[in-house]
């Protein structure tokens, strides 16, 4: 198998027929060596029926149905685990990402890139609010994250087998797939495209889901929030020291009310001390978190002995 296309679908009954016909055209050059994997993420409409119907008319199509809704990133993971291709193409069911870009992505991959992702130069037909929050999200995420994550980039991408195996060798449960590819490393490049409006149906990312996604992404790729307390404690202890000077000075010079000095000093010192101990806990929790994710320590991308190890073996 040369090419696998993986598409998560939740309540996309309206999109599937159009999606399958446009996609089969886009992958026509690799027709006999390609598979299309549609993952039904616990839809409550007739998505599964639509997948079965499409499958009946298209032998290269594989349908997978999850027992319940597990979310976009998990559904995508399910499809990626099934994919057998040497190259794996991911896109959404709603045709916001043009399947025709595959040709360009293939071209870049032929030139040695392991991951070719689509970068949205423009988003059509989306609310100002979605654009603004998405813009902020990608910038803030990058500021927080421990690895640079490409801006304005979704999961729309072509990846090769070794980079996919690297991502699948990361057993973490909170899966922020575009970040995982960034973390895995290997040679990556972006291709700009204009993101079309959703053709049919409505977005599966209402505000609440977007918030959850953003928090998942942030916590999955950064332990910086846990270190906040340490930083605050430095500020706080420094202020406590300044306060001490001021308090003692006032006590001597202005003969302030009895009890005032000791209360102010105690409050400022102990709040600093509490933040510091919280920060220490944060450091340990951060380390536990990294250990719990249990990612491989590294992936080998080249070896002069010509024996690049199979990434799957690292999992054992
Ligand atoms: N999706 C999914 N499970 C979910 C939410 C979304 O499989 O719980 C799929 C959805 O069917 C679509 C893709 O993920 O193929 C992206 O969702 P959507 O287009 O609604 O997001 P948006 O483009 O509005 O950010
Ligand atoms: Mg969409």
Automatic annotation (TrEMBL):
<dbReference type="Pfam" id="PF00535">
    <property type="entry name" value="Glycos_transf_2"/>
</dbReference>
<keyword id="KW-0472">Membrane</keyword>
<keyword id="KW-0328">Glycosyltransferase</keyword>
<feature type="transmembrane region" description="Helical">
    <location>
        <begin position="260"/>
        <end position="285"/>
    </location>
</feature>
<dbReference type="GO" id="GO:0016757">
    <property type="term" value="F:glycosyltransferase activity"/>
</dbReference>
<dbReference type="GO" id="GO:0005886">
    <property type="term" value="C:plasma membrane"/>
</dbReference>
<feature type="transmembrane region" description="Helical">
    <location>
        <begin position="232"/>
        <end position="254"/>
    </location>
</feature>
<keyword id="KW-1133">Transmembrane helix</keyword>
<keyword id="KW-0808">Transferase</keyword>
<protein>
    <submittedName>
        <fullName>Glycosyltransferase</fullName>
        <ecNumber>2.4.-.-</ecNumber>
    </submittedName>
</protein>
<feature type="domain" description="Glycosyltransferase 2-like">
    <location>
        <begin position="4"/>
        <end position="167"/>
    </location>
</feature>
<dbReference type="InterPro" id="IPR050256">
    <property type="entry name" value="Glycosyltransferase_2"/>
</dbReference>
<dbReference type="InterPro" id="IPR029044">
    <property type="entry name" value="Nucleotide-diphossugar_trans"/>
</dbReference>
<keyword id="KW-0812">Transmembrane</keyword>
<dbReference type="InterPro" id="IPR001173">
    <property type="entry name" value="Glyco_trans_2-like"/>
</dbReference>
């Amino acid at each position: 198998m040369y090419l696998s296309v993986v598409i998560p679908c939740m309540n996309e009954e309206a999109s599937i027929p159009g999606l399958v016909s446009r996609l089969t055209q886009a992958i026509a050059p690799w027709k006999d060596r390609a598979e299309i994997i549609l993952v039904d993420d616990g839809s409550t409409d007739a998505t599964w029926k639509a997948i079965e119907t499409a499958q009946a008319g298209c032998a290269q199509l594989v349908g997978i149905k999850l027992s319940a809704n597990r979310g976009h990133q998990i559904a995508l993971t399910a499809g990626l685990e099934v994919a057998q291709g040497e190259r794996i193409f991911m896109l959404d069911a709603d045709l916001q990402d043009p399947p025709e870009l595959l040709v360009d992505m293939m071209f870049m991959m032929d030139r040695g890139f392991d991951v070719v992702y689509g970068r949205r130069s423009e988003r059509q037909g989306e609310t100002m609010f979605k654009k603004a929050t998405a813009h902020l999200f990608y910038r803030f995420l990058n500021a927080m994250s421990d690895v640079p994550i490409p801006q304005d980039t979704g999961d729309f991408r072509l990846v090769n087998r070794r980079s996919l195996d690297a991502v699948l060798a990361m057993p973490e449960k909170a899966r922020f797939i575009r970040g995982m590819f960034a973390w895995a490393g290997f040679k990556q490049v972006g291709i700009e495209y204009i993101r079309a409006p959703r053709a049919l149906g409505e977005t599966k990312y209402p505000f609440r889901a977007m918030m959850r996604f953003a928090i998942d992404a942030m916590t999955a790729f950064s332990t910086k929030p846990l270190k906040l307390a340490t930083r605050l404690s430095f500020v706080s202890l420094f202020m406590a020291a300044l306060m001490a000077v001021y308090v003692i000075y006032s006590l001597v010079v202005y003969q302030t009310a009895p009890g005032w000095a000791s209360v102010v000093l105690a409050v400022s010192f102990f709040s600093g001390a509490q933040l510091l101990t919280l920060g220490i806990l944060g450091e340990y929790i951060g380390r536990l978190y990294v250990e719990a994710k249990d990612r491989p320590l590294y992936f080998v991308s080249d070896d002069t002995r010509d024996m690049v190890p199979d990434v799957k073996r690292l999992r054992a």
